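Entries read sequence, tokenised fold; example below:

***
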Amino acid sequence: MSRALKLTVGNKVGLIACSDGVKVENLTKVEELIRIMNSFGLEVVISNTLFRRNGYFSGSPKERAAELNLLFKNNEIRAIFDISGGDSANQILEYLDYDNIRLHPKPFFGMSDLSVILNALYTQSNAKSYHYQLMTLVSSDGAEQQAAFYRTFFQGHNDLYDFKYHWIRGNQMSGIVIGGNIRCFLKLAGTNYFPDPSNQILFLESLSGRANKIVSLFAQLQQVRTFDKCAGVILGSFTELERYNEFSIVEEYLKEISRIPIVKTNEIGHGSDSKCLIIGENITL
């Protein structure tokens, strides 16, 4: 597994919200997160588009994109962490400076609605990005996540990269990882930001959605021929679906509409103990 990101004491990292802005009532959690990052020896640079201003947004689409472009252009910034989620990230895609990102790539972290940015960075800049939510460091599993974060990004271990899985079909798959949150990933369908799934490994997870909703999203992926082309599927956690014990419905549907290798992991998704998957990284399972 790639160890492209290695942090050291004194590094600067950026904090931004490119999807729905962070609610002001979560200020205490953000301050706690910054204290933890400072305790690692990191200097946190806070973007001007972090907290909500009016309604849902931390700024206009152009403002949010401009702030992200600035973090990419700033050579002192070692990594960028987006701690937002929601529905608004795809608004900024057309305003990102993909040429600069291609010439000066750096790790971008985010998940859920940030799936649109993770995949756009890959398709437009051939850049790797990290499906991971930094706020897990201040979650109910915060102590374990802090230890895993430090061991992974400061000491070069694979704590956040190694995940347990079991085979639903097949016993081997290899390719570049694309995907993320299934609902948000499908926002890219029909756009230039949607990655070509040919010989790629498609990762999918979801927070909300029972069987009828998730099956409909799988049907859309099948109708745009994604499952016909990809080399395999990694199914992460489907929080609501699994809470209602309906995962088997989706599993059977996927086996019915595809013939590709499939693995299931409970260690990547919206859980407070979630691990990290690199979009744009070539992996073999």
Summary: The chain has ten helices and twelve strands. The chain has a mean pLDDT of 96. The longest strand covers residues 174-181.
